[in-house]
Write a structure and sequence with these properties.
Blueprint lengths: L1 H16 L4 E5 L4 E7 L3 E5 L5 E6 L6 E7 L2 E4 L7 E4 L4 E4 L8 E8 L5 E12 L2 H59 L1
Parallel strand pairs: 1-3, 2-10
Antiparallel strand pairs: 3-8, 4-5, 4-9, 5-6, 7-8, 9-10
């Protein structure tokens, strides 16, 4: 039972240490590529003090992700619970990244009159967390194997000790029985 509890505890510890991280990207150039870990988060540095609009390019047409107009941020429903825009720093933060978040995005920057001043292309590439897989195969499995082997050795030692104790108590009982028999024989003589 202890090895099972230990394995569950090790799995929990591994998840605590190997969560997907946060990626920092800049979308202030004409185009940029941002690689993000699956399940992680990304902070994209955009412009500040402007009217902005971020759209994801889809085959059926662009989909609004968020817009900023007159210090009012509007986030599309599909991104609402995992996206925020910090007006003071001009940073867009998206969390819980999924494979479906991969793709081309465009940031349109408008002046105070609403005239498009600039368009910036951002490519988000959501990737599986390779370090997590490496960790499982090359660290967690060997460690668990060693722990299981040690548990088997301890279990065998415990069984051997019990067997030895039973043998000793059996020998003592046999000696006591032989001694009692010898006393009976002496009494009979």
């Amino acid at each position: 039972m202890e090895p099972v509890i230990l394995l569950v505890a090790l799995a929990g510890v591994s998840n605590a240490f190997f969560l997907a991280g946060e990626t920092q990207c800049s979308a202030t150039q004409d185009s940029s590529v941002c690689s993000v870990a699956l399940g992680g988060s990304v902070c994209i540095q955009l412009m500040k003090g402007h009217q902005l609009q971020l759209k994801k390019k889809l085959p059926a047409g662009p989909m609004n992700v968020f817009s900023l107009k007159k210090d009012r941020v509007t986030i599309h429903e599909a991104y609402r619970n995992r996206t925020e825009f910090l007006i003071s720093s001009g940073t867009l933060k998206m969390t819980k990244m999924a494979m479906s978040d991969s793709g081309q995005y465009s940031v349109d920057v408008f002046d105070a009159d609403g005239i498009n001043q600039r368009s910036i292309n951002v490519t988000l590439d959501v990737q599986e967390n390779v370090w997590y897989i490496w960790y499982i195969w090359y660290i967690l499995i060997p460690v668990c194997s060693v722990v299981a082997a040690l548990a088997i050795v301890v279990l065998c030692c415990c069984v051997c000790c019990k067997v030895r104790r039973r043998r000793k108590t059996g020998r003592k009982q046999l000696e006591v029985g032989l001694y009692m028999d010898s006393l009976k024989e002496q009494d009979q003589q």
